[in-house]
């Protein structure tokens, strides 16, 4: 009886001992990092409070996503996290940083740029595949502070443009100043946001990315024209998203595209004038999603501009038009004749609200697209 009591007591003591043991922290770092990789960045950082061993463990996770904090994190925090990560591979690095006090003093601004250059060097050494850098001015997000930097050199180091590991690159970082030699042999997706892009520079970038499949330009070249010459590239998808124009009366806000290899094109945002589609010989799918085309002084030319754009896209098989496009077509639909245009559109999607001022435009498209096989009105 007494022996049985002692055995039961020993078993209870062992259970208590197991409960007091931090079995999670006894797991190897590789297992813990695998667990942390499934957590949101905020939760992974919060896990640092579990124990001393966990304090900096999150800095070695394969995905460092500081964008999940918005722009609340300071550049110092991001910099420290990168320095603590050692040489562990980084699959993805994403950072969104508001300039804050850096925008007021030029030497601080340049200090920040040098810090960003360090980030690029660190993540490239760690084999980064996805790089997302979003830097913007807290006072006016449409005028980026790095464009006024006193540094004569490029804001981003030249090594970025010869990186062999990068697969996806997203940047909102002012003016692009890449070196003459560009070789990003693994890059498949490139997004440039609120950047001033010289057409020759963009052409060199595209030529230096032999397997690039997707190019997105968001709110670029807001003070003038935008030219995309991708004749030396193998692009498959091109997306152009524009902001409001007209603040510079003497400027020409044309959009020129020459991309013989693309199969998908999306044009959205505010209308540029005019559009020049020089070579889109492989294009199959096009989406035109423009905004507020009836609200500006230039609305007199909106119909002609849209008509000419659709003429250049007449060979596509799949077309998507937004409500504003349909409304602009409605303005002159009764007097319009597109009999001379040979549209090859077989699948048409009209995103409309079924309001009376859209009806003439809907009827015009249905009369003109004689080869139509599929129609979706949403």
Can you describe this structure in just a few lines?
The chain contains 9 helices and 15 strands. With 378 residues, the protein is α/β, with parallel strands linked by helices. It has a domain at 62-209.
Describe the fold and architecture.
Residues 21-57 form the F-box domain. This is Putative F-box/LRR-repeat protein At5g02700. It comes from Anthurium amnicola. With 378 residues, the chain is of the alpha/beta class. It has a domain at 62-209. It has nine helices and 15 strands. The strands form two sheets. A twelve-stranded parallel sheet has the order 1-2-3-4-5-6-8-10-12-13-14-15. It has a three-stranded parallel sheet with strand order 7-9-11. β14, α9 and β15 (374-377) form a beta-alpha-beta unit. α4 runs parallel beside α5 and α8 (323-331) packs across α9. The model is unreliable at 101-107 and 140-151 (pLDDT under 50).
């Amino acid at each position: 009886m007494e022996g049985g009591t002692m055995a039961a007591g020993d078993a209870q003591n062992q259970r208590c001992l197991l409960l007091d043991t931090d079995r999670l922290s006894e797991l190897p770092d590789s297992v813990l990092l695998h667990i942390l990789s499934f957590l949101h960045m905020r939760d992974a950082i919060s896990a640092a409070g579990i124990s001393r061993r966990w304090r900096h463990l999150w800095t070695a996770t394969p995905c460092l996503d500081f964008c999940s904090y918005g722009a609340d994190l300071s550049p110092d925090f991001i910099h420290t996290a990168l320095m603590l990560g050692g040489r562990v591979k980084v699959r993805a690095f994403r950072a969104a940083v508001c300039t804050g006090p850096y925008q007021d003093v030029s030497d601080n601004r340049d200090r920040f740029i040098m810090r960003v250059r360090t980030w690029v060097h660190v993540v490239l050494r760690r084999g980064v595949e996805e790089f997302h850098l979003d830097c913007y001015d807290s006072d006016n997000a449409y005028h980026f502070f790095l464009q006024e930097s006193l540094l004569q050199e490029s804001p981003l180091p030249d090594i970025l443009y010869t990186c062999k590991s990068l697969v996806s690159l997203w940047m909102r970082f002012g003016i692009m100043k890449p070196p003459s030699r560009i070789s990003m042999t693994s890059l498949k997706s490139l997004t440039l946001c609120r950047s001033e892009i010289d057409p020759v520079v963009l052409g060199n970038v595209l030529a230096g990315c032999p397997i690039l499949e997707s190019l997105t330009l968001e709110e670029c070249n807001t003070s003038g024209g935008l030219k995309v010459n991708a004749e030396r590239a193998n692009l498959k998808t091109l997306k152009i998203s524009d902001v409001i124009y007209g603040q510079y009366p003497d400027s020409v806000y044309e959009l020129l595209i020459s991309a013989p290899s693309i199969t998908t094109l999306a044009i959205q945002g505010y209308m540029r004038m005019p559009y020049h589609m020089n070579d889109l010989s492989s294009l199959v799918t096009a989406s035109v999603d423009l905004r507020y085309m009836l609200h500006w002084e230039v609305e007199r030319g909106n119909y002609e501009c849209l008509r000419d754009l659709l003429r250049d896209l007449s060979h596509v098989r799949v077309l998507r038009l937004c409500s504003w496009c349909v409304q602009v077509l409605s303005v002159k639909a009764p007097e319009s004749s597109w009999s001379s245009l040979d549209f090859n559109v077989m699948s048409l999607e009209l995103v409309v609200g079924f309001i009376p001022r859209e009806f003439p435009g809907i009827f015009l498209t249905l009369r003109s697209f004689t080869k139509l096989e599929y129609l979706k009105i949403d």
